[in-house]
Amino acid sequence: MAIRALAERYRRHLLESVIPFWMRYSVDTEYGGFFTCLDRDGTVFDTRKYVWLQGRQIWTLSKLYRELEPRDEWLRAARGGVEFLEKHVFDPQGRCYFSLTREGAPASYQRKPYGAVFVMLGFLEYSKATGDAAYRTRAADLFRQVEKWIAEPGLLGRPALAGAPPATQLADVYVTASMALELFHATNNDAWRTPMKQSLANILPHFDPHSGLLTEMAGPGLRQYPEGRLVCAGSIFEVAWILFRILEIEPDPTLKEKLLASVEAALEFGWDREYDGFYYFQDLEDKPTLQLEASMKLWWVHAEALCCLAHCYAMTRDEKWRRWLDRVDKYVFERFADPEYGEWFGYLDRRGNSVLTLKGNNYKGCFHIPRALLLSAQKIEEIG
Question: In the predicted model, is pLDDT for residue 384 greater than 80?
């Protein structure tokens, strides 16, 4: 398929299949916010509202309103999500609940910062779409709070334990980089360069010196444990394209080449050469993983692969990235996309068969797929 045709395909799929599904079935017009536990045909099977997916859908709809088309229905739905979170998401200490009832009562904590990360990103993108500076301020304040929670997990009820080896999380690098990058673009304030540059430094311990792959956790002596050898190709794709965008602002040619090499290593290491698609998790030394779902093929891993490959090809114009983009595109539209009801299936077995009919749950919502389709189309169109 011609490269421009890929961009057209992604925009069409976004507007005709993915977003219509979420707008038709997920928007709660009575209480605000979004249902995310949706079966194949959009039937709601759990009315609880998972906070990080609320923030993610606010981000998505606000982003589409601002960069694709100013549709009132998108902004209206985003506003309903923002107002729902404003009323219900924060506990008396300023922490974010992980889930809420349909009406907004607290349902659970996660004891991790990631719900707050996406509340922050949702508020920030909504402020950009509406010009409401108050939500930009709220987002900046939340960023600083998340930094504290990452540095001191005990503040969220996860104290340091004597037997736990010191380690850093690749996810923390990604979320800090993502929030700082978006704050920089929203405010044009050079103060946000500092956390962006810190993210570039914090990625370095995660490079495996032998394979060049990025590990999910990094720390001295951690390689003896399964978590120290754990690799997720999807995480590598996602953190790489975020950092590529930061490197446009804070150039570091050596790190750029190191990230490109890691992406290429992840493509080769993570691709299932018997059944196609990317494994979810793998062990650097080919030992068993503790994750029972390691051999499955997940929606977000492949969405992030599309986005990362579009960035790599746009940056380098090297045809090897284009060949991989065609390969992943073919797998996605043959295996994940649902031509009957729209959107994508989320969970495939190793052979590529869907094992669950759902289109959304407490982890899958309106985010990875629409973000990847939009950003991939934009990157491809930059090529001209």
Answer: no
Give the confidence band of 24 by pLDDT, cuts at 50, 70, 90.
very high
Sole residue written with tokens 């334990």:
161
Q: Which residues of 163-186 are buried (b: 16+ CB within 10 A; e: fewer)?
A: eeeebbbbbbbbbbbbbbbbbbeb
Is residue 90 within 8 A of residue 156, CB to CB? The reply is no
Q: Is the pTM of this model over 0.85?
A: yes
Straight-line distance from the first to the last Cα atom of the chain, in angstroms, rounded to the nearest whole number: 16
Sign of the Cα torsion 99, 195, 174, 26 reads positive
Measured N-to-C along each axis, helices 170-187 and 193-202 cross at an angle, to the nearest 10 degrees, of 160
Place of tokens 């990058």: 181
Domain ranges of the chain: 3-155+167-383
CB 226 within 8 A of CB 232: no
Domain covering 3-155+167-383, topology:
Glycosyltransferase (1.50.10)
Q: Which residues of 295-305 are buried (b: 16+ CB within 10 A; e: fewer)?
A: bbbbbbbbbbb
Region of residue 168 (left: phi > 0; alpha: psi -120 to 50; beta: else): beta
User: Which of helix, strand or coil describes residue 218?
Assistant: strand
